[in-house]
Amino acid sequence: MICTHCRRIFLLAVSFGYLGTAFAHGEAMHANKEVRPLSAEEHAFGREGDPKKVARAVRVGMADTMRFSPSELTIKRGETVKFVVRNNGKVMHEMVIGTMKELKEHAAMMQKHPGMEHDEPYMAHVQPGKTEVIVWQFTKAGEYYFGCLVPGHFEAGMVGQIRVLAKGDRK
Ligand SMILES: [Cu+2]
């Protein structure tokens, strides 16, 4: 099984190889990495948020009891949210936003390939005692989730729910 993330990384590698000569200016690419432009990629659960347009900051704590706190969030459609994610535990934790289907598939991949590393705008890898930030805009109403995909954590229940309300929906 290939998760969507891996497939994308694979395709990128292929296209860079193919266009190798077009990217002769290696330094330009490195500079690009430092100040990464906002990703325009649309997901079922929204898109990367502009840090200048944050409507609301939400603190999320992670614990070695395999729980997020809070584990239920309600957000208005269109809102750009800054998640300030703190790892209060002694082991590594992650916050990855997605649909339940995506998270389950990704968690299964992580079980098989524990060393695999991704970095996407909708995920934060947080070392013990540290804080990381995700800025995300929820563009569609619906029920989404966030999970920790460190092998075994999702399966142990390290998952939370995000309800995105359209205007007029009740809380
Ligand atoms: Cu975890």
Describe this structure in words.
22% of the residues lie in helices and 33% in strands. Strand 2 (56-63) and strand 3 form a beta hairpin. It is globular, with a radius of gyration of 17 Å. The chain has helices at 4-18, 26-34, 100-112, and strands spanning 47-48, 56-63, 67-69, 72-76, 80-87, 93-98, 123-126, 131-137, 142-147, 159-165. With 171 residues, it is an alpha+beta fold. The chain has 3 helices and 10 strands, in the order H-H-E-E-E-E-E-E-H-E-E-E-E. The site of copper (II) ion (CU) has 5 residues, from loops.
Helix and strand topology:
Blueprint: H1 4-18, H2 26-34, E1 47-48, E2 56-63, E3 67-69, E4 72-76, E5 80-87, E6 93-98, H3 100-112, E7 123-126, E8 131-137, E9 142-147, E10 159-165
Parallel strand pairs: 2-5, 4-10
Antiparallel strand pairs: 1-8, 2-3, 5-8, 6-7, 6-9, 9-10
The structure holds copper (II) ion.
How many helical stretches? 3
Number of DSSP-assigned strands: 10
Quote the beta fraction: 25-35%
Summarize the main sheet. Answer: 5 strands, mixed
Task: Throw out a few tags for this protein.
171 residues, alpha+beta, five-stranded mixed β-sheet, 10 strands, binds copper (II) ion
